[in-house]
Amino acid sequence: MDSMENKLIELDNVTMRWDKRETLRDVNLSVNKGDFIAITGPNGGGKTTLLRLILKLLHPSAGNVTYFRDGAKVNSLHVGYLPQKNAIDSRFPVTLEEVISSGLLSVKGLSSSERNSLVDKTLDTIHLTSHRNHPIGELSGGQLQRGLLGRAIISSPDLLVLDEPLSYIDKQFEKDIYDIIAREAVHSTIILVSHEMTTIAGMASRHFIVDRTIHECCSSHHFAGKTCES
Predict the structure, then answer these.
(1) Nearest to residue 96, comparing CAs of 46, 58, 149?
(2) Are strands 79-82 and 159-163 parallel, antiparallel or unpaired?
(3) Among 228, 165, 209, which Cα is nearest to 38's?
(4) Are the C-beta atoms of 176 and 127 separated by less than 8 Å?
(5) What is the pLDDT of residues 31-48, one digit of tens each?
(6) Do residues 100 and 122 lie in contact, with contact meaning Cβ atoms separated by under 8 Å?
(7) 17 CB contacts (<8 Å, ≥6 apart)?
(8) Ramachandran quadrant class, 63 (left: phi over 0; alpha: psi -120 to 50; beta: rest)
(9) H/E element holding 208?
(10) Which class for 130: exposed (0-12), middle (13-18), buried (19 or more C-beta within 10 A)?
(11) Which are the contacts of 142, defined by CB distance < 8 A and separation ≥ 6?
């Protein structure tokens, strides 16, 4: 059994309704430090809604979402979030560098040189150093997706939430995405939604299927790592 010191997030009987339509029902989920959770499910099954509830961007119609640090309840966590690209208005007058550096807004005590160094390192990681001053409206879909990933990882967050990180990514950069996620998994708890589950399932320690409710899949071909408890 996982100790309270390792618990990061607890969803207790969470239900989400829009008008009379029930998007999620009676979801119970414990996320522990060091988990790599892969989430799949049909379109419209509630995957993105689940992520937004976990991030407290939505308030559940019933139930509770609770954060923990070292066994104690807290109001917030250090989170990096990659939303789906269609959630971003590419017409907004901001450069790629500004998008990535916005991932450091909640990090206190960094000097200007430290912030610049982290931005430089992140631009190199996503292979977009030459595009740093480009407005995001001039970027391709794949380049913008890489920039949003850079914003999510730049602060080395405790929790990294990735909603379809492979969307718009060309095959040439796909392996780099897997390498980046694997490096982040060393120090971050990861919750990731993706339809491209073959490689990611092999990286994840837990695999959930979401279709109005949630089910942990314990088949060995779906994930690598610990076995589910009976």
Answers:
(1) 149
(2) parallel
(3) 209
(4) yes
(5) 999 999 999 999 889 999
(6) yes
(7) 23, 61
(8) left
(9) strand 206-211
(10) exposed
(11) 168, 169, 170, 173
Which residue has 């917030």 as its token pair? 76
Coil, helix or strand at residue 52? helix
Residue 211 is given by DSSP the state: E
Q: Which two tokens stand for residue 3?
A: 């100790």
Cα 59 to Cα 81, 174, 213, distances in angstroms: 17, 34, 17
Q: Give the Cα separation of 139 and 150 in Å (integer).
A: 14
Q: For residues 228 and 2, what is the distance between their CA atoms, to the nearest angstrom?
A: 12
The predicted model scores a pTM of 0.89
Q: Which pLDDT tens digit goes with each residue over 101-135?
A: 999 998 999 999 999 999 999 999 999 999 999 99
CA atoms within 13 A on the CB side of 96: 27
Sign of CA dihedral 131, 134, 136, 138: negative
Residues in the chain, overall count: 230
Round to whole Å and give the CA distance between 107 and 118: 12
Q: Which residue has the tokens 């250090």?
A: 78
Q: For all residues of the chain together, what is the average pLDDT?
A: 90
Tokens 């408890």 locate to 229
pLDDT (tens digit per residue) in 143-185: 999 999 999 999 999 999 999 998 888 888 989 999 999 999 9
CB neighbour class for 25 (10 Å; exposed up to 12, middle 13-18, buried from 19): middle
| Alpha helices, H only, 105-212 | 112-125, 141-153, 171-184, 197-203
